[in-house]
Amino acid sequence: MHVFAAATPADLMAAREQMALSLGWHIILACFGVGMPALTVFAEWRGLRTGNEDYVRLAHQWARAMGVLFAVGAVSGTILSFEMGLLWPGLMATYGQVIGLPFALEGFAFFIEAIFLGIYLYAWGRLSPRRHVLTGLPVCVAGVASAVFVVAANAWMNQPRGFDLVNGAVTRVRPWRALFNPAMPWQVVHMVLAAFMVTGFGIASVYAAGMLRGRRDRYHRIGLLLPFVVAAVVTPAQIVVGDTLARFLATRQPAKLAAIEGLNHTGSHRPISVGGLYLGGRIRYALRIPDGLSLLVGYRPGAVVQGLDRVPPADRPPINPVHLSFQAMVAIGFGLLALSAWLALSWWRRRDLPRSRWFLWFCAVAGIASVVALEAGWVTTEVGRQPWIVWHHQRTADAVNPAPGLWAGLVAVLVVYTVLTVAIAYVLNRLRSRPVGAPQEGWAEEYQP
């Protein structure tokens, strides 16, 4: 195992803040890279299938935005790849050979996505409608594949497998076993569903805002309904997956679950705490559901749940950030579920959107809310693993670059992402103000269902 000199606490914090900023910024674009191609291709196919030109206009408009987001996402993804080596040389030097496979596969998926996205964007009006739709399918598959491989690497950090340690040295590396670690299936599904929620609610919020300004035409109505329905269908599945992940943590990462709930003492009949703060060694000001945590983990009140008393103080995650992030994620998730149920009820009764302007207001906010839930979920996952960068194998403090001056890198990255954020907002606003016109006459003649 490679041993590095210890970094100062200030530099360790700078490295962690820089990584958090980069990952938290990039993950939003990554979500649109997963969900937006599927929504765009489906909208185009639906327009060709039904002859409704508004679907094709939406697909064309979304494709332009998708190209912008992909280009900027490529920049932020490149920054992240450099940061893995620059900020965490202890991790890469020791375990790079173990987790290199998912990063290599992600590289292949990225190039496939980039190639076919270029074809898809350039081929508007140059290929037949059928062939043009087909060029978008590899973009959809490669976007999801990229997320799968990157999340698999992160899952390995939570459940490391595929190597042996002999006298501190990594031996007998089995990269495929590392890739398919126990945390990988659930984390991957959770992330992919989150991507479709962020994309669906995010796009729908734009058209909800337009409808609030009086644009009630069919174009805006479809622009709201199509992505919103996709996100609404995914939301209950996401809650079920989250419930399963909680049980996974109870056996695989009990310290993280204890931090999520602020649970000090191991025992049965453990309650679930809703809200509250961890103060003075316990959760205060919370609504407690009796036996809730034991029922969640073991389906019976007598199920034993491990508390923080089984974890050495030096190995405990920071409790309040983990607890509050998890609470925010769950609260927003159930709020989005309620909003989805509101639309479903209205559609079942009248085959129409709810007539209340409050529904449109909530839809307009849902995009931002879904992003907040996404970020809160990643804080729960990443901070909940601390102080380990590789669970029970390598501490974060042992993996960081010991070189001084890491705060300068944090400031530089902050400036870069500020500029990128302003640029994205400006370009997307320009695209919004210049919507794609109706297709030319005869646009669907070559398409034969």
From TrEMBL:
Family: Belongs to the cytochrome ubiquinol oxidase subunit 1 family.
Pfam families associated with the record: Cyt_bd_oxida_I (PF01654)
Official protein name in the record: Cytochrome ubiquinol oxidase subunit I
GO biological process: aerobic electron transport chain
Entry's Gene Ontology cellular component terms: cytochrome complex; plasma membrane
Electron transport keyword on record: yes
Annotated compartments: Cell membrane
GO molecular function, one term: oxidoreductase activity, acting on diphenols and related substances as donors, oxygen as acceptor
Domain of life the protein comes from: Bacteria
Major location category of this protein: membrane
